Amino acid sequence: MDFSPNPDQIALNSALDKLAENFKTPPTDFRRFALLDNSLDQALENGGFFEAANIPELGPVSAAMMVETLARLPYTAEVALSMLVRPQLEGDWPRPLALVENGRPGRFVAEAATLIILDGDQVGLLSAPAGATVKVESLFAYPMGKTKEQLAFTPLDNTQASRIRTWLRVALSAEVAGLLQSALDAATEHLRLRKQFGRPLGSFQAVQHRMAECAVLTRGVRLLALQAAWSGDAGDAAVAALHAQESASRAVYDLHQFMGAMGMTLEFPLHLWTYRLKALLSELNGRSAQAHAVSEYCFLDNSEKSDD
Amino acid sequence: MEFQWNKEQQAFRATVREFLDRHLPDNWERIAHGPGSTAQSHFSRQFCANLAAAGLLVPHWPQRWGGQDADAWSAFILAEEMWAAGEPRGGQYMNVNWIGPTLMRFGSEAQQRRYIPPMAQGETLWCQGFSEPEAGSDLASLRTKAERNQDQYCINGQKIWTSYAAEAETCFLLARTGSGKKGISIFLVPMDTPGITVVEIPSLIGEGDIHEVFFENVMVPASAMLGEEGQAWDIVRTALSLERVGIPRFALASRMLRRAIAMLKQRNDFHHGAVTQAARAHAACEAARLFSYEIIDQRQKGNTVGAEASVARVATVNAERMVAEYVVEHLPEALAGGDPLLLAHHQRGIVAGIASGAAEIQLNLIATQLLQLPREPR
Ligand SMILES: Cc1cc2nc3c(=O)[nH]c(=O)nc-3n(C[C@H](O)[C@H](O)[C@H](O)COP(=O)(O)OP(=O)(O)OC[C@H]3O[C@@H](n4cnc5c(N)ncnc54)[C@H](O)[C@@H]3O)c2cc1C
């Protein structure tokens, strides 16, 4: 056990932090649902950040740390699937990637070069056919899109399919961890500054305890996501994704609540994180599907001592 | 980063498990119910002596005091395995974790020579005399008084919720020698000193667990004081920082969750809500486990641990509660003559947020120290 990044991972993290610095502040006149900047994607491409998972000294855990860091930014780009799922695919699939789940609208579907199709129990991979997708307006603070009609695909074999599901879960948890952290930070900052009844709102214990609970959830999601990225184990990934969706659904309401009416405006960028979290809540069939995956992978044998 | 045990750690865990397999009798899980009971206390004395003989009681202590200078991970692996087995060390886990190390740091030579060897040999039980009827979370308001009279102190007052008091030989006692936080001192008091009365409190949480302890003109020599007069607060803070993560409660919770699932599967009752809730509880146990490991990792690297310890405790309380509630909902017979260790877990689980400090205090610390929200005005 060692919870500190190795020197290569530290170097990568600080290079990424430097890059992220340019994308930390939304434009002052920002009043929209999604905040995109292609130069973020470009900078990540140019810096070779998408290749980290394949470098032995770095590995997928490094990619997960990057996904978490980038998810904290107000700007978004298709990062999680490219960094964590793409390196696990057989063959070379171009990015960006998007998930098409049972025909529903999904993140980055209209921009994606590669589509991962989840249809019931089946998983497929497709190069996005030209003209097959459209953009969709939404509250979710991602660019959303959908396929115009159901796309034909050849289902992958079970091994590949479950590998993809595992890494989709890892990607989802790492992203949720970063989103939760930024939403928590934004609300914390507000609670330190906003005064009512002659004192900062953050000094009321009723508020403090709910915020502290959110902090516990957020940190838990991060650790579980990193563990799952490190091990690539299907059980670890299911646990991480379950805890991520569970925590997101518990935290998002409170974090908005503590912003008062200000949190309902597009001027205050909290929605960039909370509405992304809401988009992630329904992915991979939502919490109960993760719970069943946990059961499938973690409760298989009847041993009481599989905790080592 | 690495999320796996190395070879030595795996071997050490295997050694501990082998020891447990060999030394826990068939009826152990019935004995485990009632951690402070006479039956368990007697069992624990023999068990701890055997542990000591096998070098598994205090491996993380310095060699000088019978240990092997083992690292923080070994100590934690040992604690996990013991707690997951129903804590066969009984109250002696306190000696191992913090009372012994505190005496090594602050005790006089005479105190060390008198008290540490029996701890290292697994022959002695202590109790912790902190809480009082009017001083629970607000421990600094304690009233038990120790008045100096030449070479002696005369102690009067009352402690409450004292675990293991009926069976313990010695009390790690906090008493007031002045006013305010700086007016509290520690006394190492033999429990057979005249003037001490112990009364068991019948409870939901197992036989012989909690007690009232009355002190009426209890005379102890000045040499029974640990450290200096008024030093209690500093010493206790250091002592409890040795216990930062506290008991690895997630280990038993996790094991009992697995047991519950196996029982439900066996009678073909593991469906729908039972599956979802089990998965959620399992995830909560896993989060608590990683938080605790994160702190051990910090300790192992010699870093100070702040409010992260509170995060670990809150996560542990959540996990305990989820597993305890899971069992109540899906296997209610556990509380009515069913599996004794499921019952014992329930009884230990429900106190997780209270014993050794209320969870709300931990939430206060997370809010003010980790999130740096402003303190509540007092
Ligand atoms: C099984 C068990 C074993 C124990 N063993 C020992 C022992 O061996 N030795 C010993 O000295 N003590 C022992 N204790 C006592 C334990 O340390 C106290 O119960 C604990 O410190 C809380 O004190 P209290 O019970 O007086 O609760 P109180 O201080 O009366 O608090 C009651 C509740 O109020 C809330 N609360 C309190 N303060 C705050 C606050 N600042 N902010 C928000 N909410 C708050 C919390 O929910 C708390 O649980 C034991 C307790 C249990 C349950």
Task: Tell me about this structure.
The complex is a heterodimer of chains A (308) and B (378). Chain A is mostly helical. Chain A has a domain at 159-307: Up-down Bundle (Butyryl-CoA Dehydrogenase, subunit A, domain 3). Chain A is 50% helix and 10% strand. Chain A has 9 helices and 8 strands. In chain A, the strands form 3 sheets. In chain A, strands 1-3-4 form a 3-stranded mixed sheet, with helices on one face. In chain A, strand 7 and strand 8 (199-200) form a beta hairpin. In chain A, helix 7 crosses helix 8 (270-281). Chain A is globular, with a radius of gyration of 19 Å. The relative contact order of chain A is 0.12. Chain B has 378 residues and is an alpha+beta fold. Chain B folds into 3 domains: 7-124, Butyryl-Coa Dehydrogenase, subunit A, domain 1 (Orthogonal Bundle), CATH 1.10.540.10; 127-230, Butyryl-CoA Dehydrogenase, subunit A, domain 2 (Beta Barrel), CATH 2.40.110.10; 248-370, Butyryl-CoA Dehydrogenase, subunit A, domain 3. Chain B is 47% helix and 13% strand. Chain B has 12 helices and 8 strands. Chain B has helices at 7-23, 28-31, 38-53, 72-84, 92-106, 109-120, 232-241, 249-266, 272-300, 308-330, 340-349, 359-370, and strands spanning 126-129, 145-149, 152-160, 170-176, 184-190, 196-200, 211-221, 225-226. A 4-stranded mixed sheet of chain B has the order 1-4-5-8, with helices on one face. A 4-stranded antiparallel sheet of chain B has the order 2-3-7-6, with no helix packed on it. In chain B, a hairpin with a 2-residue loop joins strand 2 and strand 3. The longest helix of chain B has 29 residues, at 272-300. The mean pLDDT of chain B is 95. Chains A and B meet through helix 5, strand 8, helix 6, helix 7 and helix 9 of A and helix 1, helix 4, helix 8, helix 9 and helix 10 of B. The structure holds flavin-adenine dinucleotide (FAD). Residues 127-131, 136-137, 161-163, 205, 209-210, 351, 354-358, 360-361, 364 of chain B line the site of flavin-adenine dinucleotide (FAD).
